[in-house]
Amino acid sequence: MKRAAVLVVAAAASLSAAPAAHANHVAPTASASLELGSKVNDCDPGTFICGGARRATISWNASCGPGHGHEALEEIEVSILGVTPTGRRFTYSSETLDYEAPFSGSMEMVAGPGLRFLGSVKVTCAVETVDSNGYLDTHRGSATAETAQLYRPPFLKETSVTSGTWCGVRLGPRRSERILQAGKYFEVSWTMRYDAASLIRRGRPMLRQIRLHGRGAGIRFKKKPDRSMLRDPGVIGTWFTPRRAGKIKLWATIGGKKTNVRRMRVLPKRC
Q1: What's the predicted TM-score (pTM) here?
Q2: What is the pLDDT of residues 198-207, one digit of tens each?
Q3: Is residue 54 in some structural domain?
Q4: How many CB atoms are located within 10 Å of the residue 118 CB?
C-alpha cells in the first residue's frame, strides 16, 4: 500500500494579543500538517459530473500559552484555502470548532480536482480578569498555522461522440458514443471538473484559457473549444476527422494545467 505524503510546516504564531506579557495574557501557539489521502466519491453540486477528488486531512497542535489550559480556548477554525494563479488565497472549505475542540486533533475535508490549496488552522483563546477598578477585562489572542501548498490536476471524466457518421459498421447507442471511424467527421465532447478560481486568470475569457488536445490515428491537434458545443456545465468540445484506424489520446489544458488522458478507438475506413 502506498504511503501518503505528509507535508508539515510548523508555523510561527501570528498573535493579535500584545507580544509582551502579562501573566494573565494569553499567548496562543499553533502548528499544522496536511495529508492527501484516498479518492473520494464527490460530485459538482446540481450535476452528475463526479470524480477527481481526494481526501485531505488537516492535523494540528495548539495551546493558549503558558499557564492557560483548555478553559481559555474559544474556538479552532480549520480551513482549506485555495490559491489563485496570482497567489491570492480564498476559502475553499472551512469549519469552526467550539471550545470543546481538542488542542491536538485532525479533520478530514475534500479537495476537488484542479485545485491548488493549503491547510490553515486558527486557534483563538481568551481569559477574563478583574482590573484594579473591579471591572472585567477580556484578554484575547489568536495564532494561525499554515501548511505547504498541494496541487490536484484538473480531471477529464470522459470524452464522448455527440455527432458523427459511420459507414459499413453497425453500432449500438452506447458504443457509438465511444468509437470513431477513420475518414469521418466527428464532434466530441470533453466533460471535466476543475476549480476555476485556482486555474483561470481574471480579466480573460475562460474559453481563451482552455485548449483541447488530441494525438493519434494520424492526426494531432490543439484547439480552442468550439462555441457551438457549449451545452451542459463542465462540458465543452470540438470536431476532428481521424485519418487512420487505431487509438487517439484526448486531453485538455486549463490555464496551462494538463488533465488526465482519455482514449477513443478509431475503426478502419470501410467505404
Answers
A1: 0.83
A2: 999 999 998 8
A3: yes
A4: 22
